[in-house]
Design brief:
It contains 12 helices and 15 strands. It has 2 domains: about 130 residues, Aspartate Aminotransferase, domain 1 (Alpha-Beta Complex), CATH 3.90.1150; about 240 residues, Aspartate Aminotransferase, domain 2 (3-Layer(aba) Sandwich), CATH 3.40.640.10. Helix 2 runs parallel beside helix 8. With about 400 residues, the protein is an alpha/beta fold. The chain starts with a strand and ends in a 10-residue tail after the last helix.
């Protein structure tokens, strides 16, 4: 039995997206910037996809800039704002950002920028009062992730955005894990920049988008032909963008039924694993991504039994899950997300994530819970109980 529960890493492209990609590759493969009929056909495909992706977040199409993915969208938001200034300013991010935000922030820090990393509570949530206290006269941008991919916590983005807007700075949020699962309306949400990714919503890999609120100015990262409103030069990856558009349109159509289904499956898995004393839930159970389940091992030893150990064992059983810790040069490192949430090093090496999707069934949930219980029962008795959990 093969069960895929790593939808936060990537989703399988849906048939409708693959079909439109094949059509573009064979019939509409022109350069959208060309003036002849081949270019016109390609440009029509491009702008239709822009309308479709914009519709997912209720944006005007002209505010959507296509990129190669969520990482580039995040980088364009952070560095595109920063390069407007000749002297270093102040940037605020959360301590649980994806590396696509935390790494550009680290780079700016090397360039002399002042970076504040907001603390989070034990569930991974930022307190708007902490953001208010962190603001400075030279704060020009705040970036807080909407839905944390490792622990599933949803941030109070509306409240945070209101704080930033009142201060007069710009607010960016990485909504890669949220779009298509939770309703987003940028006409109501106080955000200036918002990142999306195709392959998180059953579109192809290699396409993403940055919402740029009309009137917000960015400096492009790439020099070139001035495509994408002069913000992202380079001939657009038209087949991937077309697939992204179809996936976004279908996600919007299906959200009203798919999101409650995912929540029901998510809670079913939490309930079935509730009696496993060696697992401790991470993230916020109330403010949580609809498809996301995550734990740490209460008594992981950090070496013989870690999150990656469970990933390997589950893979042998035909079930795909993921771990949050990283392996560098053969040495397992604690998850910076779990560390920021207050977990010790051993526990921060033991995080696992199970994320659900369109193809997940109740039978998949029941089988996964049974297999995970058996693996833990087999492995845990051989451990030396740790004092730091």
């Amino acid at each position: 039995m093969q069960i895929y529960l790593d939808y936060s890493a990537t989703t399988p492209p849906r048939p409708e997206a693959i079909a439109v990609m094949q059509q573009v590759l064979t019939e509409q493969w022109g350069n959208p910037s060309s003036l002849h009929q081949w270019g016109n056909r390609a440009a029509t495909v491009l702008e239709q996809a822009r309308v479709q992706v914009a519709g997912l977040i209720n944006a005007v199409p002209e505010s959507m800039v296509f990129t190669a993915g969520g990482t580039e969208a995040d980088n364009l938001a952070i560095l595109g704002v920063a390069q407007r200034y000749r002297t270093p300013q102040h940037l605020i991010i959360s301590s649980v950002e994806h590396s696509a935000v935390s790494e550009p922030a680290r780079l700016l820090e090397q360039w002399g920028w002042h970076i504040t990393r907001l603390p989070v509570n034990a569930q991974g949530r930022v307190d708007p009062a902490d953001l208010q206290a962190a603001l400075r006269p030279n704060t020009v941008l705040v970036s807080v992730i909407y839905g944390q991919s490792e622990v599933g916590t949803l941030q109070p983005v509306e409240a945070l955005g209101q704080v930033v807007r009142h201060h007069g700075a710009l607010f960016h949020t990485d909504a890669v894990q949220v779009a298509g699962r939770v309703s987003i309306d940028v006409q109501q949400l106080p955000v200036d920049l918002l990142s999306l990714s195709s392959h998180k919503i059953y579109g192809p890999q290699g396409a993403g988008a940055l919402y740029v609120r009309p009137g917000v100015e960015l400096v492009p990262l790439l020099g070139g032909g001035g495509q994408e409103f002069k913000l992202r030069s380079g001939t657009q990856a038209l087949p991937a963008i077309a697939g992204f558009g179809v996936a976004a349109s279908l996600a919007l159509q299906e959200m009203a039924t798919e999101t409650p289904r995912l929540i029901q499956l998510r809670d079913r898995l939490f309930d079935q694993l509730a009696d496993v004393s060696d697992l401790s839930v991470t993230g916020d159970r109330l403010h949580r991504l609809p498809h996301h389940v995550s734990f740490v091992l209460r008594c992981a030893d950090g070496d013989r039994l870690s999150g990656k150990t469970l990933v390997r064992q589950m893979n042998l059983a035909g079930i795909a899950i993921s771990a949050g810790s990283a392996c560098h040069s053969g040495k397992l490192s604690p998850s910076p997300i779990l560390t920021a949430m207050g977990y010790g090093d051993r526990a921060a090496k033991s995080g696992i994530r199970l994320t659900l999707g369109r193809h997940t069934t109740e039978a998949d949930i029941d089988w996964t819970a049974m297999v995970l219980k058996q693996i833990i029962e087999r492995l845990v008795p051989s451990m030396t109980l740790c004092a730091e959990c």
